[in-house]
Specification:
The protein is mainly beta. It has two helices and 17 strands. It has a twelve-stranded antiparallel barrel. Strand 10 and strand 11 form a beta hairpin. The longest helix has 12 residues.
Length: 277
Amino acid sequence: MSRKLVLLGIALALVPSVRAQEPKAAASKAAAPKEAPPIADNSFLMEEAYNQEYGVVQHISAFQRSREGQWVYAFTQEWPAPNQKHQLSYTVPVLHLDGVKTGVGDVAINYRYQAVGADDEPLWFSPRLSVYLPTGNANSGRGAGGLGVEVNLPVSYALSEKLVTHWNAGGSFTRLQSTLGGRGSSRGLRGGVSAIWLLAPTFNVMLESVASRIELVDSQGRSDVSTNYVVSPGVRGAINFRSGLQIVPGIAVPIGVGASSGQRDLFLYLSFEHPFR
């Protein structure tokens, strides 16, 4: 299985998951402006089950680079619609692959419903539905050439004030089509678990573990399967401003395990979150 397919899978299945939030009262930032708010809406490979708060927008940049020099960058913007119960977002990926001109991949439009969880409750659940638009060049390996859909079921549970766990399970289906007339489909499964240690309100230590399986089927019924399993240690910190702006940089090192042994990536993260009311 080519590294191009692995990176395309990251762009299709991983990028909309780059969002999270540690449990806290919905009005914590407004009620206690002089206190440093905890890190909110910032996770790397896993998706946490906390929607964007009312009146707060977030701008997320994520960058993942392999040792071979291939990379994926994604920009995501998240909005409450109009409150924390419903969330809308979009993700625009940019891919750089071997022998392929750098360009935009398939753009995702995402909707999340806050089914379980409020304020400081320990258990949260927010199913997500994403639609992938065929904006990337399929012949260059930057896109599927057809529409795709993905469902993810993130669950978050706080074991204590200092330790939070997150659990993901989801699947995707994409129609593949090239400009030369070739047609096929892609089916994917993805799951993971993570733990975040709140060492301080503005500094967290993270350990994420994610497994994915992508199956491609061409017009003749031939299939090609790619599996990927990584364990990713990382850290994130926060810089808070009196205006309510929170800037969160982060770094992680996804390490391939099993069939993905030998994979060593660099993951960089930068988030800007601020009120817009």
